[in-house]
Design goal:
Blueprint lengths: L10 E3 L9 E4 L3 E2 L6 E9 L15 E9 L13 E7 L6 H5 L6 E7 L6 E8 L4 E9 L2 E2 L2 E3 L2 E3 L2 E2 L8 E4 L1 E2 L3 E11 L9 E6 L3 E3 L4 E3 L4 E2 L9 E2 L40 E8 L2 E7 L11 E9 L6 E3 L7 E2 L21 E3 L9 E5 L6 E9 L12 E7 L12 E5 L4 E4 L12 E8 L8 E5 L3 E4 L7 E10 L2 E2 L6 E4 L10 H28 L4 H4 L7 E3 L2 E3 L15 H8 L8 E9 L4 E7 L7 E7 L6 H15 L9 E5 L6 E5 L6 H7 L6 H20 L2 E2 L8 E3 L5 E3 L6 E2 L8 E2 L12 H6 L1 E2 L1 H16 L11 H9 L2 E2 L8 H10 L10 H13 L32 H7 L6 H6 L5 H4 L4 H6 L5 H21 L4 E2 L1
Parallel strand pairs: 26-27
Antiparallel strand pairs: 1-9, 2-8, 3-8, 4-7, 4-9, 5-6, 5-8, 10-13, 11-12, 12-15, 14-16, 16-17, 18-19, 20-21, 22-23, 23-28, 24-25, 24-29, 27-28, 29-30, 31-32, 32-35, 33-34, 33-36, 36-37, 36-38, 39-40, 41-42, 42-43, 43-45, 44-45, 46-49, 47-48, 50-51, 52-53
């Protein structure tokens, strides 16, 4: 009976009196059934040997468990030696005679695992070696993980692994209407338990997740793509009529643009513009209108202009741009009718800013025919207009042009040309637009228009131009004038005058000329001799080293000039290093500690011992082991570059170690490390004069490098080193390159990383570097200094930095930065590299600020290069003018009001973007007036820039 007094059947053995027992009990053949690891649960009772007298030498309290694998049942033909032992099993509890008297036995349960199994089945065997034991139960089983669904995937039953610690990978199958995002997997542990799932399935488009399954979207809902999201309600003006919809079709008369996402509401074309206003000025007209009352629910509203010229009352109309090709505003904007003349001499109708895709509700139409009737239609459109079968709505207006200047003179030809004169003839303009009063002839020597030109007036279509130089090429232009004004000058006509006929002299005349020349030469020599003897002549001035030249052996000797030599031109970099740098014995160097790491290896601090001198502290850059040939060349090239520089604000090279390993570059030691870390460590501890001194030192070093024609390409505060006396020195020449003699030359790199936040836009876009791009980087360094080492552009991504700079935004002034310094930064960040200052100019400005520290106290002081020192306070605030006309009156250039209006410059926002070419194309031909207007535009731009908060847009 067991401990619950229930009868049980057992296999018993109790031969404890006899020694050397070897009794076996074997099971039948047990099929494995796919199990790779089995578990044997044995229940048994065992008598305590101490409770039986006289058996201490032969009684045992353990038995052995064995197994044997086979592919089929083989009966009794198994030898004992073929069995494999699993374990020796002992009892946790044993019974005594007392327990036997009450017929109550203490039952033990032991479990053992066996694996891996490879045959189709197996036998179990139990060996008794002299114990009093009874087997009550033997259970053989294996473990498996039951099927389950997780993350929209189904995992089937799987048997556990063969080892006690093995994991079985099971790949799941997505449920219906689901698809894999990441392969769904789970692992079955040896205990038959599923571990955390990996990967998942997601519901397909048109279906959403619901209790580990994917169900279809209901009518009125949709889901455009596979994902975790739920079905969404159809956007405005759309619907779905079936379940599992991928998108919602638009309602009638509503559309979705090709670029609109499925979640966008359906929209409609806009209604017609409203409130058209027209203003005729000669042969140009300004049109303005109001936005449509209904934009169709979209923000991408655009306008187009249709122009028709009508012959009279009830007459036929035709496209006013037909056969001409209309032009748009922008480059080429000119006065007096403006526009490019076609081969027939007719000026095409011109729309400013353009004829189609207008974003603002206004347009200026130029070059219309005088005294003609026109009809203009303004069409409103958006991205879905072309999807509609209805024509685009419009508003129209009829206008009649006034008198206008004549059209351009064409077909100028040369009738005759002599040494000093040219006869010209031309045809009357195709569109005189009135009675022609006279013609203006403009002429000048070729390529000298900017220096001087002459004009001549003629009543007819023929003119004689005299007083010209013989054998000289001249440019001629003609224009007509009526009571309405002057037309456009004709295209340039180049004519060369006849060559001069050489004069012939007789023999007597030549003799007289020679006598006069000889007499003059004698007189000159007499004067020179007189001055030497009597006029205080001093040879000391003649022999000045600064002014004399030495002639030796027929050659001229010039003062000593250092030229930079690019080490990359050497076939062997070692040759360049040995030519420029000093080789130092490795025994003279003592490395004391590692202070950082660089591109090529570690950077160390050490001491260099020189003969007869005390040890000096140095920085050591080492070349790491396993370097490539390219790394070695670049490493030695940097040493060759530094060896050629000698300036107090450029890092000094002490020498190199190349004849032993590791290869080292030895430079002076800068106690305060990099400038950016130094500034952050001492945030707010320096005066403004100290910070300007830091910037001045960097600019002086860069001036020296620029004068050598050298480009740094990686100028940043992290590459400026600071010594114990707060002297800043330019370092890190790993990205540097040398320029040719051409000051506008630029180096183009074929690859490599560019420090986006410090690099000029043209260097990022085209990989072209110049000294001007170094100036841009210097402006960022100035900003770093004034902000005590802040990261330029803060947490913006590099892509956002590039986009912001291209759109004209610049870093704002750091806290406490004076307007003078920020304006200098803005000068360095000019988009046109030719408008940026040179380093020598920057040094001059900083010197002035150091000598006049009161200018650093003002937050609005301007200090633009090329303007009066520190900007004269008497200059008016042009940015406060309310109109273009008021601005022109302020600078006393009111005569050009009509030129600006005809050119489409209607607001100060248009004017601020003008350049010298735009002003010339408006018809402002006098150089003085051009300069005056351009200077005012530049000052206005500066005033607007310094009002921008929090950032500056140029």
């Amino acid at each position: 009976m067991d401990e619950y007094f229930s009868p049980i059947h057992t296999y018993q053995v109790c031969n404890v009196m006899s020694p050397s027992q070897n009794n076996w009990l074997r099971t039948g053949w047990i099929p494995r059934d796919g199990a790779r690891r089995i578990y044997i649960e044995v229940k048994f009772t065992l008598r305590d040997c101490n409770s039986m007298p006289g058996v201490l030498g032969t009684c045992k309290e353990t038995f052995n468990l064995y197994y044997y694998e086979s592919d089929r049942a083989i009966g009794t033909a198994i030898r004992e030696t073929q069995f494999t032992k699993i374990d020796t099993i002992a009892a946790d509890e044993s019974f005594t005679g007392v327990d036997l008297g009450v017929r109550r036995l203490k039952l033990n349960t032991e479990v053992r695992g066996v694996g891996p199994l490879t045959r189709r089945g197996f036998y179990l065997a139990f060996q008794d070696i002299g114990a009093c034991i009874a087997l009550t139960s033997v259970r053989v089983y294996y473990k498996r993980c039951s099927g389950v669904g997780r993350n929209l995937a189904v995992f089937t039953d799987v048997v556990t692994g063969a080892d006690s610690s093995s994991l079985v990978e099971v790949r799941g199958q997505c449920v219906d209407h689901a698809e894999e995002r990441d392969t769904p997997k789970m692992y079955c542990s040896a205990e038959g338990e599923w571990l955390v799932p990996i990967g998942r399935c997601i519901c397909s488009a048109g279906f959403e997740e619901h209790r580990e399954s994917c169900i279809a979207c209901e009518v009125g809902f949709y889901k455009p793509m596979a994902g975790d999201g739920l079905c969404g309600r159809c956007p405005l003006q759309s619907h779905s009529e079936t379940r599992a919809a991928l998108y919602c079709p638009c309602d009638s008369s509503h559309y979705r643009a090709l670029t609109d996402p499925p979640a966008a509401p359906c929209t409609s074309p806009p209604t017609a513009p409203v409130n058209m206003i027209s203003s005729v000025n000669g042969t140009s007209v300004n049109l303005e209108w109001g936005r449509p009352l209904d934009s169709g629910g979209r923000s991408d509203l655009l306008y187009s202009v249709l122009c028709q010229k009508c012959s009279g009352e009830g007459g036929q109309c035709e496209d006013c741009t037909a056969g001409m090709g209309s032009t748009s505003g922008g480059e080429g904007m000119g006065g007096g009718g403006g526009g490019t003349v076609d081969r027939s001499g007719v000026v095409p109708v011109r729309f400013v800013p353009r004829q189609s895709s207008l974003t603002e509700p206004w347009v200026t139409v130029l070059n219309l025919v005088a005294h003609a009737n026109y009809t203009f239609r303004i069409l409103a459109m958006n991205a879905v207009t072309h999807l509609s079968n209805e024509p685009a709505p419009f508003i129209s207006v009829n206008i009649t042009t006034n008198q206008a200047a004549p059209s351009q003179v064409i077909a100028i030809r040369q009738e005759n040309a002599s040494q000093n004169s040219v006869t010209l003839q031309w045809h009357e303009p195709d569109q005189p637009n009135g009675v022609i009063l006279e013609y203006d002839i403009k002429y000048y020597e070729k390529d000298k228009e900017q220096q001087s030109y002459s004009t001549l007036k003629a009543k007819g279509t023929t003119a004689l131009v005299s007083g010209l130089k013989p054998g000289t090429r001249y440019i001629f232009q003609v224009r007509a004038r009526t009571s309405a004004g002057c037309g456009r000058f004709s295209q340039n006509v180049e004519i060369q005058t006849g060559k001069a006929i050489p004069l012939r002299y007789d023999t007597m005349t030549i003799i007289w000329i020679c006598m006069v020349l000889v007499s003059g030469l004698v007189t000159f020599l007499a004067i020179v001799i007189c001055r030497k003897r009597h006029c205080g002549y001093s040879k000391a001035f003649q022999d000045s080293d600064e002014e004399k030249m030495h002639y030796q052996n027929g050659h001229v000797s010039f003062p000593d000039v250092r030229f930079y030599i690019d080490p990359h031109t050497y076939e062997d970099p070692c040759q360049a290093v040995h030519e420029f740098a000093r080789e130092i014995e490795a025994s003279r160097i003592r490395i004391e500690k590692i202070i950082g790491s660089g591109e090529f290896g570690e950077v160390c601090y050490g001491q260099m011992r020189l003969p007869g001198k005390r040890d000096i502290p140095v920085a050591l850059k080492t070349l790491k082991a396993g370097y490539s040939d390219k790394q070695r060349r670049d490493f030695l090239a940097e040493a060759s570059i530094m060896a050629q520089f000698d300036h107090p604000n450029v890092i000094h090279l002490e020498g190199v170690v190349t004849r032993s390993k590791p290869v080292m570059i030895i430079t002076e030691y800068m106690e305060n490390g990099s400038l950016d870390s130094f500034l952050r460590k001492h945030d707010g501890q320096f005066t403004i004069i100290q910070l300007v001194g830091v910037m001045r030192g960097i600019a002086a070093g860069m001036t020296y490098l620029a004068d050598l024609g050298y480009i740094h390409r990686d100028l940043a505060a992290r590459n400026i080193l600071v010594n114990s006396n707060m002297v800043c020195k330019v370092s890190d020449f790993g990205l540097s390159r040398v320029l040719e003699d051409d000051p506008d030359a630029a180096y183009t790199t074929s690859g490599g990383k560019i420090p986006i936040r410090w690099t000029a836009p043209e260097a990022i876009a085209y990989r072209k570097f110049s000294s001007s791009s170094d100036v841009w980087s210097y402006g960022v360094v100035m900003w770093e200094v004034m902000s005590y080492g802040e990261r330029p552009y803060w947490n913006l991504t590099n892509r956002d930095v590039i986009k912001s700079v291209e759109e004209g935004y610049r870093l704002p002034a750091p806290m406490g930065c004076s307007g003078a310094l920020h304006t200098l930064m803005l000068d360095c960040w000019q988009k046109d590299r030719n408008e940026r200052p040179r380093f020598c100019q920057i040094v001059t400005v900083l010197d002035k600020l150091i000598r006049n520290p009161e200018h650093l106290k003002s937050m609005d002081t301007l200090c633009r290069l090329g303007t009066p020192p520190m900007m004269d306070r008497s200059i008016p605030d042009f940015s406060s003018c309310s109109s273009v006309d008021e601005w022109l009156d302020t600078i006393k250039m009111g005569r050009y009001k009509d030129h600006f209006a005809a050119g489409g410059y209607l607001t100060l926002g248009h004017v601020i973007g003008m350049n010298q070419g735009d002003i010339h194309r408006l018809g402002v031909t006098l150089m003085g007036h051009q300069k005056k207007i351009m200077t005012s535009v530049q000052l206005m731009r500066v005033q607007v820039l310094n009002r921008s908060v929090p950032s500056v847009h140029v």
